[in-house]
């Protein structure tokens, strides 16, 4: 079907819809059932069985299974069954970890799935683009991604970029008129908007004529949707590290086996011990736990109202050193209310509450009737005419539908008895040139009841001043002289100084012969009418968030399209702008090269009157100074800067699809404080990963060393293979997971941002791992030797004592891993998951030791009470010996030679 050939009413008829009311919910649901969701087909995910089986593909697991076969062949059925059981349990755990990680990634995708605005039952509502059906009426504006193939029926300065489909990156203008001809190519179908393309300017309405695979995109899209699943730099580094660790562990294991055999140990026992040791020493679970820690962290972030779109951002978050944030709506509440009006040298105050349309006008002490003051009345009327917002009463409350700046103007007009409905009876809007943040204004062409046409423009005062040829002063039109310009400027400064956002209004009558083709023609030679100043109170939580960021070594920069004076006043209220801090304006910025900007960017705290295009320069200059930059944005023009920054942050509520797609973090509540919370969580996740790496590797070092030392000293095996496997599964696995869920250390936001190239083992971690690991191995061996010497005939007993010491030493050490400082820095019961997993591990250990049926399998004997004293004493040593001693490692050393040490720490 060539939809472009049809006229609007024919499209309506063919798709059985109504452009004014849309589909009914029932009809939409029925069509959805019949034709399926509006989705491109994706590659199938592996089934649960495949994921489960893939757990056993691991090289070490195969080695272990090989060992099982050897045990079985040698008739050691108990060994064989126990190993198989452990391999199975390990596989099941791995399966659940992987599934969990996958599920949360999927949930994340759902959350970031595109939304569209559709007309259903006569109301515009937001629905997931997946739910679109043929006949749905769609509304789209600048920054939206088109959700399905749409025949446009209304277009206002509509430009769409279709590069996803045609490869052509220059946006094409779209119109609603039918096109004749049967062979019009996709690139020329100017009344169609295609799925996946993006609105760069203007707005439009259209009827859905193709969904899912029946769209132009669907036809070329066996290529998948951009479902890239990226690994984080840390995951990649850990994978590399894992490979090195495998080699080291294998080499050490081989050494243990060779020495053991040389010392006369039984070949089969040594073989099995070697395999078990290799399995235990290789942290094969590490990547899975990292993924789980990352994705659980991401879930926590969602609870705190931020969505991480790309996992690597979680790590980068912790490195952020500068946040560049928009002002309006992010630092402020975006609940605007006009409080002051200025026209022709007079100022009026307006009282009121929020968008409630009642309030009184005063000039000084005297109440005035706005209908009686021409300039004031025009200011209010025009502010309301050039406007798309409406205020509706819902359950006794007045709620805004539309942009808050515009809502404030509507509310102010309503206080003078001018509602949009009343105005609509007198005035008819012929054309609109929508607001965009580069032009910083919006205009409409209006026809009044007598058939006269005129232009109304509203926007940033300095911009309107530049294009006004005259001004309304008192009741008269005067040419715009420098004198009047200065008057307006100082009025703007007075309003701005009170942190008010100012919007100017201007007007131009049109003669019958005047034709207006574009916004430049409309927005010229205007008559300046006046100013409306509105409050936009800061969000209460932002000041503290800025302060906390400062303590964390993160600087906050405000970037706003608003006037310099207004921006400065708000920046001061929020403590963003220190004494002597610089404020740079867009016009200045335009003259500067990136290098120029670099030289002043460190002392600049506010960028005012900037266009989104300038943001890229700011990001570049900061990055050149070595900063890791978080940059917020919401519009189409913000996308390049969001993309170029290290952490692109998009607004969840006001953000366009394009900004969201470019971002790595979405703020569900558009709130600056949420960025801080996300950074905090990012830092915490990274610290948690360090915590369990520290725990796992120190444990592994301990396990290898106890065996190695024993072989070197010509002692019998201190641990039997099955015990080693048990330790690997229970003592290592559960608490490590719990560490991944740990809360942040108190001072996590008082540390400087992490250097992005910092290695995992920086800040003394390798020292901690090796020293604690060494001690764990040492005390385990000591426990074994003492017990063995007391009773050389009961090897099994000494082995059980060694086993218990190893387990306890690790379980005590795990509490030390919670802190970068020492075990005494944190309440040991602060992480209940950890306490729970430690208790479970201890109980399981006691079961293995005291439960008779398990004793032959695990080669254990009941330990006598007095020996527990020895075990507990020895197993406490690795954690408590080093507390506060000279051996605390990296932290203390760093103080002495900070620069060198830090550099050495950078991998
Ligand atoms: P931020 O602080 O997030 O940059 P902003 O609202 O100040 O937000 P823009 O939205 O780019 O930045 O607006 C720039 C300027 O354009 C505003 O300071 C205001 O003077 C003017 N403006 C804002 N909204 C409108 C509108 N709907 N119609 C006309 N002019 C507007």
TrEMBL record:
<feature type="transmembrane region" description="Helical">
    <location>
        <begin position="270"/>
        <end position="296"/>
    </location>
</feature>
<dbReference type="GO" id="GO:0005524">
    <property type="term" value="F:ATP binding"/>
</dbReference>
<feature type="domain" description="Cation-transporting P-type ATPase N-terminal">
    <location>
        <begin position="2"/>
        <end position="76"/>
    </location>
</feature>
<dbReference type="InterPro" id="IPR018303">
    <property type="entry name" value="ATPase_P-typ_P_site"/>
</dbReference>
<dbReference type="InterPro" id="IPR023299">
    <property type="entry name" value="ATPase_P-typ_cyto_dom_N"/>
</dbReference>
<keyword id="KW-0406">Ion transport</keyword>
<dbReference type="Pfam" id="PF13246">
    <property type="entry name" value="Cation_ATPase"/>
</dbReference>
<feature type="transmembrane region" description="Helical">
    <location>
        <begin position="723"/>
        <end position="744"/>
    </location>
</feature>
<keyword id="KW-0812">Transmembrane</keyword>
<dbReference type="Pfam" id="PF00690">
    <property type="entry name" value="Cation_ATPase_N"/>
</dbReference>
<feature type="transmembrane region" description="Helical">
    <location>
        <begin position="797"/>
        <end position="817"/>
    </location>
</feature>
<keyword id="KW-1003">Cell membrane</keyword>
<dbReference type="GO" id="GO:0005388">
    <property type="term" value="F:P-type calcium transporter activity"/>
</dbReference>
<comment type="similarity">
    <text>Belongs to the cation transport ATPase (P-type) (TC 3.A.3) family. Type IIA subfamily.</text>
</comment>
<dbReference type="GO" id="GO:0036376">
    <property type="term" value="P:sodium ion export across plasma membrane"/>
</dbReference>
<dbReference type="InterPro" id="IPR008250">
    <property type="entry name" value="ATPase_P-typ_transduc_dom_A_sf"/>
</dbReference>
<feature type="transmembrane region" description="Helical">
    <location>
        <begin position="244"/>
        <end position="264"/>
    </location>
</feature>
<dbReference type="InterPro" id="IPR044492">
    <property type="entry name" value="P_typ_ATPase_HD_dom"/>
</dbReference>
<feature type="transmembrane region" description="Helical">
    <location>
        <begin position="868"/>
        <end position="887"/>
    </location>
</feature>
<keyword id="KW-0479">Metal-binding</keyword>
<dbReference type="InterPro" id="IPR006068">
    <property type="entry name" value="ATPase_P-typ_cation-transptr_C"/>
</dbReference>
<dbReference type="InterPro" id="IPR004014">
    <property type="entry name" value="ATPase_P-typ_cation-transptr_N"/>
</dbReference>
<dbReference type="InterPro" id="IPR036412">
    <property type="entry name" value="HAD-like_sf"/>
</dbReference>
<dbReference type="GO" id="GO:1990573">
    <property type="term" value="P:potassium ion import across plasma membrane"/>
</dbReference>
<dbReference type="GO" id="GO:0006883">
    <property type="term" value="P:intracellular sodium ion homeostasis"/>
</dbReference>
<keyword id="KW-0472">Membrane</keyword>
<dbReference type="GO" id="GO:0030007">
    <property type="term" value="P:intracellular potassium ion homeostasis"/>
</dbReference>
<protein>
    <recommendedName>
        <fullName>P-type Ca(2+) transporter</fullName>
        <ecNumber>7.2.2.10</ecNumber>
    </recommendedName>
</protein>
<dbReference type="InterPro" id="IPR005782">
    <property type="entry name" value="P-type_ATPase_IIA"/>
</dbReference>
<dbReference type="InterPro" id="IPR050510">
    <property type="entry name" value="Cation_transp_ATPase_P-type"/>
</dbReference>
<keyword id="KW-0597">Phosphoprotein</keyword>
<dbReference type="InterPro" id="IPR059000">
    <property type="entry name" value="ATPase_P-type_domA"/>
</dbReference>
<dbReference type="GO" id="GO:0046872">
    <property type="term" value="F:metal ion binding"/>
</dbReference>
<dbReference type="InterPro" id="IPR023214">
    <property type="entry name" value="HAD_sf"/>
</dbReference>
<feature type="transmembrane region" description="Helical">
    <location>
        <begin position="765"/>
        <end position="785"/>
    </location>
</feature>
<keyword id="KW-1133">Transmembrane helix</keyword>
<dbReference type="GO" id="GO:1902600">
    <property type="term" value="P:proton transmembrane transport"/>
</dbReference>
<dbReference type="GO" id="GO:0016887">
    <property type="term" value="F:ATP hydrolysis activity"/>
</dbReference>
<dbReference type="GO" id="GO:0005391">
    <property type="term" value="F:P-type sodium:potassium-exchanging transporter activity"/>
</dbReference>
<dbReference type="Pfam" id="PF00689">
    <property type="entry name" value="Cation_ATPase_C"/>
</dbReference>
<dbReference type="InterPro" id="IPR001757">
    <property type="entry name" value="P_typ_ATPase"/>
</dbReference>
<dbReference type="Pfam" id="PF00122">
    <property type="entry name" value="E1-E2_ATPase"/>
</dbReference>
């Amino acid at each position: 079907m060539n939809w472009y050939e049809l006229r609007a009413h024919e499209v309506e008829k063919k798709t059985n819809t109504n452009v004014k009311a849309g589909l009914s919910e029932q009809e939409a649901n029925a069509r959805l059932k019949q034709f399926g969701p509006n989705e491109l087909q994706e590659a199938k995910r592996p089934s649960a069985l495949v994921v489960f089986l893939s757990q056993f593909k691991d090289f070490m697991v195969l080695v272990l299974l090989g060992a099982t076969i050897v045990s079985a062949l040698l008739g050691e059925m108990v060994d064989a069954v126990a190993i198989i059981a452990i391999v199975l349990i390990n596989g099941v755990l791995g399966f659940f970890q992987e599934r969990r990680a996958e599920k949360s990634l999927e949930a994340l995708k759902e959350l970031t799935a595109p939304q569209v605005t559709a007309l259903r039952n006569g109301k515009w509502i937001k629905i997931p683009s997946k739910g679109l059906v043929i006949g749905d009426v769609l509304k789209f504006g600048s920054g939206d991604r088109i959700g399905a193939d749409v025949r446009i029926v209304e277009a206002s300065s509509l430009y769409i970029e279709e590069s996803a489909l045609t490869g052509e990156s220059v946006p094409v203008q779209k119109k609603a008129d039918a096109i004749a001809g049967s062979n019009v190519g996709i690139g020329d179908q100017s009344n169609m908007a295609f799925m996946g393309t993006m609105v760069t300017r203007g707005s439009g309405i259209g009827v859905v004529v193709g969904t899912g695979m029946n769209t132009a995109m669907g036809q070329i899209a066996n290529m998948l949707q951009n479902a890239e699943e990226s690994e984080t730099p840390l995951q990649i580094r850990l994978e590399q590290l894992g490979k090195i660790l495998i080699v080291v562990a294998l080499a050490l294991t081989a050494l243990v086996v060779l020495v053991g055999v040389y010392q006369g140990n039984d070949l089969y026992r040594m073989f099995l011990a070697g395999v078990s040791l290799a399995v235990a020493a290789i942290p094969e679970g590490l990547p899975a736990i990292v993924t789980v820690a990352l994705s659980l962290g991401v879930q926590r972030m969602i609870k705190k109202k931020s969505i991480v779109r790309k996992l690597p951002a979680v790590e980068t978050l912790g490195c952020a050193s500068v946040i560049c944030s928009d002002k309006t709506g992010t630092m402020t509440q975006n609940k605007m209310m006009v409080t002051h009006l200025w026209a022709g040298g007079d100022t009026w105050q307006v009282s009121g509450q929020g968008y409630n349309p009642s309030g009184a006008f005063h000039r000084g002490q005297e109440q005035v009737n706005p209908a009686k003051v021409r300039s004031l009345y025009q200011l209010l009327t025009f502010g309301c005419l050039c406007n798309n917002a409406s205020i509706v009463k819902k359950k006794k409350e007045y709620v805004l539908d539309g942009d808050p700046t515009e809502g404030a103007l509507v509310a102010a007009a309503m206080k003078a008895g001018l509602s949009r409905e009343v105005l609509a009876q007198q005035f008819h809007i012929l054309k609109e040139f929508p607001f965009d943040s580069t032009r910083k204004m919006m205009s409409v062409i209006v026809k009044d009841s007598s058939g006269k046409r005129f232009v109304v423009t509203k926007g940033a005062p300095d911009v309107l001043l530049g294009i006004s040829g005259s001004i309304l002063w008192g009741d008269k039109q005067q040419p715009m002289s420098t004198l009047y310009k200065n008057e307006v400027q100082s009025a703007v400064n007075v309003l701005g100084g009170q942190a008010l956002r100012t919007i100017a209004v201007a007007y131009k009558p049109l003669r019958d012969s005047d034709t207006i083709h574009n916004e430049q023609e409309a927005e010229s030679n205007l008559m300046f009418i006046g100013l409306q100043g509105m409050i936009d109170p800061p969000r209460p939580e932002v000041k503290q968030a800025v302060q906390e960021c400062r303590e964390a070594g993160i600087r906050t920069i405000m970037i706003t399209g608003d006037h310099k004076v207004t921006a400065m006043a708000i920046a001061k209220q929020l403590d963003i702008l220190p004494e002597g801090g610089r404020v740079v304006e867009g016009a200045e910025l335009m003259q500067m090269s990136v290098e120029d900007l670099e030289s002043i960017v460190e002392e600049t705290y506010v960028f005012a009157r900037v266009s989104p295009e300038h943001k890229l320069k700011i990001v570049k200059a900061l990055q050149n100074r070595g900063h890791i930059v978080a940059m917020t944005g919401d519009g189409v023009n913000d996308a390049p800067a969001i993309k170029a920054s290290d952490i692109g942050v998009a607004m969840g509520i006001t953000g366009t699809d394009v900004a969201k797609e470019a971002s790595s973090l979405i703020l569900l509540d558009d709130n600056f404080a949420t960025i801080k919370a996300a950074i905090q969580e990012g830092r915490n996740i990274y610290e948690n990963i360090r915590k369990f790496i520290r725990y796992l590797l120190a444990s592994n070092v301990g396990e290898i060393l106890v065996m190695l030392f024993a072989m070197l000293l010509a002692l019998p095996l201190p641990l039997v293979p099955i015990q080693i496997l048990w330790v690997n599964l229970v003592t290592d696995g559960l608490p490590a997971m719990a560490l991944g869920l740990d809360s942040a250390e108190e001072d996590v936001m008082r540390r400087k941002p992490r250097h992005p190239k910092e290695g995992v083992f920086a800040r003394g971690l390798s020292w901690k791992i090796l020293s604690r690991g060494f001690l764990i191995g040492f005390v385990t061996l000591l426990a074994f030797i003492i017990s063995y010497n007391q009773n050389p005939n009961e090897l099994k007993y000494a082995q059980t004592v060694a086993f218990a010491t190893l387990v306890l030493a690790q379980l005590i050490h795990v509490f030390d891993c919670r802190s970068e400082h020492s075990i005494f820095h944190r309440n040991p019961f602060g992480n209940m998951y950890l306490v729970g997993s430690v208790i479970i591990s201890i109980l399981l250990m006691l079961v293995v030791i005291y439960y008779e049926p398990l004793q032959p399998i695990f080669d254990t004997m009941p330990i006598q009470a007095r020996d527990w004293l020895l075990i507990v004493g020895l197993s406490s040593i690795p954690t408590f010996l080093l507390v506060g001693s000279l051996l605390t490692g990296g932290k203390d050393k760093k103080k002495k030679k900070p620069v060198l040490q830090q550099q050495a720490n950078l991998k």
